[in-house]
Amino acid sequence: MADVAAANASNAPKAAVVAPNALTEEKALENTEKAINTLKPIVKSAEAKPVSIDTGNGHAPAPTITISDHDTEPQLLDKSGKQQNGVNAQATTSATPPSDAPDNVNSEDNDPATAAPGSMPSKPAGELPDWYANAKVGWRQVTGIDDPTPTALQAEKNVIHAWLNDMYYGDWYHNAGVIVFAVLATHLATLLRLGMGWMFIILAFCASYYSNSIQRFRTRAREDIQRELVKKRLVHTAESADWMNEFLERFWKIYEPVLSKSIRLAVEQVLSYSTPSFLDSLKLGTFTFGTTAPHIVSVKTDPFTPDDTILMDWAVKFTPTDMLNITPAQAKLRTNPKIVLDVKVGKGPAVATLPILVEDMTFAGKMRIRMKLMQNFPHIRTVEMSFTEKPVFDYVLKPIGGETFGFDIGNIPGLSAFIRDTVHSILGPMMYEPNDTAVGVLQIHLVSGKNIKGSKIGGGTPDPYVSISLNNRAPLARTGFRPSTINPHWGSTHFVILNQANLNETLTLSIMDHNEHRKDTSLGQVNFDLSAILEDATQEGLVKEIMRDGKERGELQFDLSYFPVITPAVVDGKPEPLPESNVGICRLTIHQAKDLDRSRSLGTDLNPVAKVFLSGAKTPHVTTHTVKHTLAPVWETPTEFLVPNKKRSTVTIKVINERDFMKDPVVGYMTARLEDLLAATQKRGRENCWWMLSGCNTGRVRISAEWKPLNMAGSLQGAGTYTPPIGLVRLWIKRAKDVKNVESTLGGKSDPYVRVMLNGVIKSRTDIINNNLNPEFDQIIYVPVHHIRETLVLEVMDYQNIGKDRSLGAVELKVNDLAVADRDNHDFPYTSNGKIPRNSPIFLDKNISKGVLEYEAEFVPSLNIKGIEFDQRNELEKAVEEGARESGAHGDAGDDVASADGSVSSSDEEYEKVPEGITVGEPTSGILIFNVKSGKIFHKARLEVLLDDSYWPSFATERARSSAHAKWDAIGEGFVKELDFGRVWLRLNENEEGEKEDILGDFKCDTKAFLERCLDTDAEFTLSREDGTSVGSVVISSKFVPVPIKLDPRESINNMGVLRVDLMSGKDIRGADRSGKSDPFVVFTLNGQKVFKSETKKKTLTPEWNEPFSVQVPSRVAADFTLEVFDWNQIEQAKSLGVGRIELADVEPFQSMERVIPITSTKHGEKGEILLRLLFTPEIIAKARKNTSTFSTAGRAMTQLGGLPLGAGKGVVHGVGSVGRHVTGVFKRSKSIKESDESDVEPPPAQVSMPAGPNASPAAAVAAGTTIPPTQDIVPQPNIGVVKVVVVGAKDLSTAGESSVKPYLVLRVAKEKFKTKHAGKTLTPEWDETFSFQVTPDIRTMSLGIYDDKSFAKDKCLGEADIEIWRHLQPNAPTPLLAADVWTELRNGTGQVHIRLEYERGLGHGRSSTNLSTSRAMGLGSPSRFSLHKPRPTDE
Q: Comparing C-alpha atoms, which of 1133, 1183, 1128, 1135 is closest to residue 1163?
């Protein structure tokens, strides 16, 4: 021990003397050198000796190292008593001590006083004492997280203990314990007759305990909340590392010399072995990283990774110091990165040194560091590093001339970019994220959201959609947004390819709010740890809370399924062949191209870029980088994509010459089947997979493909197939009670209706009941269902005349409550549980309800038939089968086909025309299924399908993205009550769901005729306007599933139709005049609406009328059809002589019958009778909405224009537009009219105009006939202009049932809205307000509406009108008409509006904004329907 201490003392360094004013760098270098000198004697004394290695040849020498178990074998000691170990020990051939060893070896070794420090014990260590073994050290032992699974008795005790703690300890001790103690202590003090001093002592004790506990609670709670908030902030925010940069700046000057020296030594060893023979040597003459330390820009940590994983994104940069503007003294203290490679050329004395200089290296990039932790030392299992994006680097390279005369080759055009791309191509597969290949596919099925809280300014309803990403990086996929709903249903499926690193990441589902004019806002996130799918690959029915800023913002329901890549099994060191699979992942690599056709370029070289298209897609799946000025580009771009069907998949590669300011021509292309690419790669290898390019003279491309089959069990192929219906749900929605009043603050009531949704799609809706919190619906609707696990949502809505409808709550109805599976019944696999009446609370939120919905539900099974699935084959397979069918149909007529019943000729006409499926029977009711495939339409629009008498569409497609070649491939369905009387109505709606309808054209036919054309085959239907002008065509195929159901009499189509009434005569009419006679006339009323008034017969009690009229009856069973006889008086009001009720339920269709209707009154009883003749003709009566949001009780027949009852009085003509609702109205043209036909269409007589002037009037305009010149083109040229609208006034307005009205006018042009002031209480308002707006050829129509201004109620509409701008302004006519006075009749009301239009070309007087000038302008978006609103600021 003394020798060792002496040796250490002799080798100890002497104290260094450094000048106090020495620089930091000098001190660092001096300390480093002294530290190295200090280590030299120690290293020298421990110099290793050479070790012999047994080669196995010759005599075996004695081993130099003896390996033994120190716990079981005795240790050898040298003569000095020290243990023999390592390379300094004298080895022996045996683990036992030699015979001449002293006897006291083991005793000396066992003596701690004589044993060498750090030597291994010679015998096993003793057992630890119980007090140490039972001690709990660390949080894992204290919490018992690693303890074995408790027994059943222990688990039961733990449950009881936890329950007791939760029930009593938590409540009594923490919350009320101090109070109980205070009461008991004071009671005891009272019993002992203690004084007030003891009371103060008890009070001080309780107050101290309460104060300390509250202070601890608040401190800990504040810290917990702060930690959680930091986690939420870390998801989106990157932190700065200024403290780390400050440390690096100081430490770098100390560490950089050691680091540079270590790297130089390691690199020179490599260079010495790699020096070519023609060079003398390669050495690093200079190597330094400079005095500037690396800089950490930001650090972003993912707080939602597992506890054993740390994931950080580091943004780092390494930038040299500017050396131009510094003093010589500062230059001595600073240096930039510099590497000088001395290349010695020659041999012997003739050696020349060529310095290659690399300096001023710059680097910037974002690195992702993932550390996997473990329990044992060093506690870090793995460290993964990769670049999340391509790093940026720069340098100065001077290969010749050195530092003095060197030339930076980066100044050579194109060379620096080439080097940079080469480095990226080499580092990309190894270091760039993701750094490995796909290992599986994640299927994400986003079902729906619930109670999503919006974040719009002003509290509007959000338009939510879901964005899918990993670790909150760039979005991988997204759903479509659902407009204005807090309970969206998406029902979309997305697939994400995962690599090995992704399995430890987090799936981020971001719920976003779609905004048209600004950036989408976040509504919250749902995070899912993907490592959980390794344990359970299929997780259905996941419901996660949507979190934002630590608060719950709703719920998201989704399903996850993971399909891993099938890896080959290894048997005897050889991989087994993979099973044949049609579904998998293809890894396609575009390597390079050669001999490209230079004729596709204006110069001699090309700038080629390759694009990959999958299976005829229009958008490229991947695009390579552009290689400049070459005919043989090298890309080496890999990509991976999911293949649902390998046999049908094709790959198209286009090589394009990229030109910056000109159109990029296609140099060449190739299209190959994926199976051929895979087979060629397997046969030829990756290096020889060359394919010739088409469409060019020369050129070839090398691509390779690798196939990875997926273990999907056909799940992907069935994702887009249609599921046939199992039956119907019959809903009898009776009434609702005490619904939420969303208009109570303004003195109104809700306008409720019920809509039924399945999988987020509106299937049906009831009528709207105005201004009623206890509506009586009494309506039966049918909804097809496809699975017993589906859920219907009955949502009560408040109709808004202008804005979006608002939800009043919803009720859920599960199909499995109505039906049960019957496996023994093949025809009807599901049977009904009967009619189930319910009174369900209407839930506004999760646990909040308002009102009750009363309804009755019943499941009606459908017939289980085959062939309902639609054809999902591609065009190639159809062409092959069509060819085979053609060859079979034109075979030899003499060949007979044998059958069990004999022989049937293939040319037999009856045999050829026998279809498959049911051809006989009485399928009067059923589900009509239609596949809307494609169309050729003139405008981008949605196709809506309406069945029977429904106003709401049974199905509607998405708005077509292309008008010339619209592609939908959408499947819808609806219930047909009676096949013999059913109707199908197809119509094109240019606007989106929820917006004001704009019907371009329609097609109507009987359901039977529809099925005859498109049942099991494709048929084309032409849609047209009412004037016969075609607006396009659609291709539809259909199926029909019979549903045996017994309809109520009021549900039958025979229950509706047109009733012809012949008012013939009267008898024994009561005399009301002094003369004993009467002047009778009759008024007929249907469902509270007057439909006909007869002529007055003077001075008679037996009048003869013989007056016929017709009326549409929506329901004979529920019809309230009455007549009332009045006595006409010249001065007084007409007196009622009695009322008679006409029963229509027993009227037989198509049979004329006479009826005598008795006249009764409450005062005189039954007196008189009326003779009628009735003829009822069944006919579809389509429902329509009024401006008050209700359905009209008596609608219109689909076979009649406008559907107006005969004998309609004044004002009915004005309301035709509301009944037709743009199908199309009498006063509005459809936008589908061709421009060449506009000059032939005369304006309607209810809208006239004349050139502006002082004598302008409606009469003058009609007399002058200045409507439209029939031979002039009224469409303006495609230039910008300004139209000034002067709102003059209106007259003959209706009071809308009010005593007085205060009218104001709202003008709408495109997305702009303008509003006048109200003109006071008058029916002839005069506004004289001017608005100006910018117009283009696309803006043709402006709409106006007149409303009654209410202070504490919703404004009522007094009338609406649409004005065709270019009917009245003709700027391109030979005699231009640039100003006109226009008078237009109002629909949905009475009266006329007078406006003046003036047109000015260009922007006019320097005005360029959309809102050029307004007297009162309203902002974009839907205006409030009330008058208590502030106008929104207009957008510039």
A: 1135
